[in-house]
Write a structure and sequence with these properties.
Organism: Bradyrhizobium symbiodeficiens
Radius of gyration: 15 Å
Helix content: 25-40%
Number of helices: 3
Structural class: alpha+beta
Protein name: RidA family protein
Order of helices and strands: HEEEEHEHEE
Strand content: 25-35%
Number of strands: 7
Shape: globular
Strand order of the largest sheet: 1-2-7-5-6
Pfam families: YjgF_endoribonc
């Protein structure tokens, strides 16, 4: 087993066999990320893979918890792709994930909203180890862009 602390984020990405999608093109008047000093603010990413929204519909109706977590993981992969671009092509510049914000397009009584966003949170821990620990918000919403089941945004620190 590899010592996560000794392995760079780029090496960890490769050793996990994680493929990143293309950075999604914004569908409105915003950019995928904004750097300010040592902070990177990442725009919300839906569960899109190279232009194709993979999970369209409501969690608790069209998707169960495991499917919704997979949707959140796709959001996380899009965030990592945008973060890598913001870092000039190397995730080794990331010092930590500060915050994730998760939005779940769900039925009004769906109870497992925080567990859905674990799909993205678990990815951050898997890739960055202790540097992936973060504060987080998870909320249920009536709808998301393009009918997506999940959207996640993030803030990272570089160092």
């Amino acid at each position: 087993m590899t010592d996560l602390a000794a392995e760079s984020a780029d090496q960890r990405l490769a050793s996990l066999g994680i493929e990143l999608p293309q950075v999604p093109q914004p569908v409105a008047n915003f950019i995928p990320f904004r750097r300010h000093g040592d902070l990177v603010y990442l725009a919300g990413q839906v569960c899109e893979w190279n232009g194709d929204v993979r999970f369209i519909g409501k969690v608790g109706e069209a998707f169960d918890l495991l499917q919704a977590q997979a949707a959140a993981r796709v959001c996380g992969l899009n965030l990592i792709a945008a973060l890598k671009l913001a870092c000039g092509g190397s995730l080794d510049h990331v010092s930590c994930c500060l915050r994730l914000g998760g939005f779940v397009n769900c039925t009004p009584s769906y109870p497992n909203i925080p567990q859905v966003i674990n799909g993205a949170s678990d990815l951050m821990h898997e890739l960055f180890g202790a540097r992936g620990h973060h504060a987080r918000t998870a909320v249920g919403v009536a709808n998301l862009p393009r009918g997506a089941a999940v959207e996640v945004d993030a803030i990272f620190a570089l160092g």
